[in-house]
Amino acid sequence: MTKKTFIVLCLAPLAVLVVAFFVLPMARLVVTGASGETGLYAYAALLLDPRYRATLVNTVLLAAATTAATLVIATISGLFLQRHKFPGHALLVAMLTFPLAFPGVVVGFMMILLAGRQGLIGDLTLRLFGAREVFAYSIQGLFLGYLYFSIPRVILTVMAAVEKLDPSLEEAARALGAGPWRVVRDVILPALAPAFLASGAIAFATAMGAFGTAFTLATDIDVLPMLIYTEFTLSANIAMAAALSVGLGLVTWAILALARSYGGTTVAAAG
Amino acid sequence: MSGPGNGHGVAVRVAGCGKTFADGTRALEPLTLDVARGETLVLLGPSGCGKTTLLRIIAGLETPDVGGRVLFNDADVTRVPIERRNVGMVFQSYALFPNMNVAENIGYGLKIRGVSESEREARIAELVALTGIEGLEHRRVDQLSGGQRQRVALARAVAVRPSVLLLDEPLTALDAALRERLRGELNRLLRMLGITAIYVTHDQAEAMALGDRIVVMRKGAIAQVGTPRDIYFVPANRFVAEFVGAANIVEAVSDAGALLLPGGRLPVAGPRNGATNGNVCAMIRPESIRIVPTDGATLHGQVDSVSFVGDRQRASVSGAAAKPITVDVPNSLVVKAGERVGLAIDPASIRLLPGDAS
Amino acid sequence: MRDRMLFGAQLAFTLAVAAFLIVPAVLSMLAGVTVNYFRGIASGLTLQWVLEVWQLYADTIFRSFLIAIAALAVTLVVGVPAAYTLHLRNDRLSRTVEEIITLPLAIPGLAIALALLLTYGGFSDFRRSWLFILAGHAVFTLPFMVRAVMAVFAATDVKTLDESASSLGASPWRRFCDVIVPNARPGILAGALMVVTLSLGEFNLTWMLHTPLTKTLPVGLADSYASMRLEVASAYTLVFFVMIVPLLVAMQIFAGYRGSPTGLRR
Q: Which of A80, A232, B279, C205 keeps 20 to 30 A from C139, CA to CA?
């Protein structure tokens, strides 16, 4: 067997798996999206139909808010953790990255425990203010849930980037008279910009496609993945569901591709 | 001595400053040093000798161990953080801000100090002319060559009219040819500015070219302080003798004003340097030894090897002293390996080193 | 003084964030072993809920492990040789192939599940078996294995090793077994950890693909959150934690803080 043959053979199982269970199905999906009664219009519906557009806007806003909040939180904590070592440091980092592998369903459950009808926060507010505060099933609960699964991952990326910062740049700024806040603003944040772009894009794409959390919280808030789900399972509107899926897939793929072209190949794709 | 960047600067005093790091490494033994106003002082030594630590203590990036003090013109600045010490610092890696262009880098310190935009621009233009980087003002940092970056780093440090200029191996990152050219420019610039400057390097040629005085350091302590000539011709101990310039260290028996060597007798003049009769250590520079005809010479030896260095030859001669000695031979003289030769050494160029050599 | 205040403020902030993340998890673990959640610990600790979970959901636990191990096997057989080829060829075609296998990470699990249902929904035997779920998991965990192995190949200059083995007369297959695979071991291990962890925790894809007879643990969890009492749901979550946390710890130790891609569905 020649080397060339061997190499081709090495790729064969991959070709079979990916073509059979990804490429073909996706092609089928795209075709199905245009096969409904509205035909190709279904693809434009995401932008033109007011109900779908509202859902899209909701989802984008939620994802954007999550990304912004996560970046701020992760930067403050990430910078702090990477720059200061103290007893208990490792434990704190472990606590912050522990939820890394939780599926969205579990995150939803966490929110219910925190802010649901028998939630911890409800108990506290009952004791302090006499009224039970329940917000797990509203947009705030969903937002907190999205934060819950975004923070661990972004913190890890930020901490890795902070570790690579060149200390002599900060020393040079200090030598020129810059106080701590100016050093952060003029040296550290610009140097972290690529990491922000990369992890921000991942957080945004993940939030756009998140399903498990919204499913568990059974919210009334319309997010695109839930809409796709209901179109498929409850309304049996398969073509629409397919078209919406393709639309969502395109959007998340585009965001990640954009981030990759700016941030290099360090951008890992989301889920 | 005044010029476009005039600042004259402050006199710096380091009093009893030692430094032990958190992991227990003792980087610096408590030492005391005075730097005169306007002087260029070079800290010279091998890596790990503490010279960079000392520089960083003067800068304010490290604090000395308890009891150490740093004074600028008699004002105690030990507790003052670097942001407020008004020093100009040039880092080994230049540390130019990649998110700013050349002009913004140079003007950064001025911006912090609230200097108005028009004044800033004027000062930036001054410095650009001074360091010879006209035309590069709007370039991004990654578009600059090593030599250009070095000049921008210098311009940035000098822009704020610092009290003292601190340079941490600024030429080490450049290749040899560029280094030599920039060394001359740097020297000219420092003379023109007339500012107090403290310069760290491990390159002794650089040290001798740039320094008004040199502080040779070893293992966290000062081995010798002096002018370049002092250090070269009158080293205080064996370490300094060997670190600065090539040196032959000869062990011999001293007897009535002469050294007894296997290859003959060598009269010695100059300071006894506390060496008594008996075993002594002497330093002789290769350029102080001349190869002469064997008849009439007081010292004899045999040539082991000769190598051509470019502007002269270097010969290794054995038999004259206990170990082979290195001799500089002009190109005009033909010397072959295996030849027996005579050696003539000016008694005044022999330096007796103190007993506790290392 | 200002430094200390800044430190204190940042510490407090970070602790608050950590609390936000950890407190519900701890609550859920406690609830899983408490007799009555509303009365709290005072009502006593018990394993009755865990036992009940076992009775109700043992099959989901087994099935999740089965699928995870199977996914690992598939990604090993498919991914390691492919990583080798892609690394050696390093041309436009390889780039394209890498792009394609990474696509499933950029597309929401829902969409992929839908695509699979549309294409294979008709093959009812396949559709109703756990293999259907395996197909989805394999497609989505594959890029992690491939990338992990390729990273190791790149770092250890496998090309030169391969060339020297071939100069000694080894055939491509021999080289693959004797030189390539052993040197890829750290990457294979890292990839394996990721594949298993991701498969165990996968929900978005699996929820759409499952049938009442092919439930996995996360699917069971969703069921229990909707229909079971809090203590049972918590005990079930506790079982999940016990399965997944050691894997996470192993991954962290392995990968350090390099922020390895952990594309996780939500």
A: A232
